[in-house]
Amino acid sequence: MLDPECARMADSYSENFLSDTDAVLTEFQSNVSAIAEPMDDQVFHVVGSVVLALNEVNDRYETSTFDTDEREQLCVFIDEVLTEHGIDVAGLAARHRISRYEITDRWRRW
């Protein structure tokens, strides 16, 4: 389920790393889809969950870690999934006095 733009990752990362990352992102999409009436706390909960799970994947593999480009792509993916499900990411961020690009920062170690 990795974005085609991430196809080059296959050359840099182990199959298990990519598979685990894909599973985390697929679960995130499912969790966002399950939010019927998005409240800020719910949205931050699913964002926090996906970021913490990605932290675990990143920590689990010594030779594979998310590089700068991939980190940026993961943040864009999170933003796009939220937006595709009708969540106003810019509004969410503004209500919490952060930029839309900072919504993952509270939990992110990659």
Which parts are unreliable, with pLDDT below 50 for 5 consecutive residues or more?
none
Form type? globular
Count every helix, treating DSSP H or I runs of 4 or more residues as helices. 5
Strand percentage lies at: under 5%
Question: Can you count the beta strands?
Answer: 0
For this entry, what is the oligomeric state of its chains? single chain
Average pLDDT taken over every residue: 91
What's the helix-strand series?
HHHHH
Q: What separation lies between the terminal Cα atoms?
A: 20 Å
Summarize the main sheet. none
How many distinct folded domains?
A: 1
Helix percentage: 55-70%
Which structural category do the helix and sheet elements fall into? mainly alpha
Query: Radius of gyration, Cα only, in angstroms?
Result: 14 Å
Q: What are the SSEs and their pairings?
A:
Layout (H helix, E strand, L loop, with lengths): L8 H4 L2 H19 L6 H21 L7 H17 L4 H7 L15
